[in-house]
Amino acid sequence: MNKALRQVIIAGNWKMNKTRPEAKALIEQLKPVAAKASCGVVICVPFTNLETAVELTKGTNIKVGAQNCHFEKSGAFTGEVSADMLKEIGAEYVIIGHSERRQYFGETDVTVNKRTKAALEAGLKVILCVGELLTEREQGVTEEIVGLQTKIALLGVTKEQLKNVVIAYEPVWAIGTGKTATAEQANEVCSYIRGIIAKLYDKAAADGITIQYGGSMNPKNAEELLAQPDVDGGLIGGASLKAEDFGVLLDAASK
Ligand code: 13P
Question: pLDDT tens digits for 33-62?
Answer without folding.
Answer: 999 999 999 999 999 999 999 999 999 999
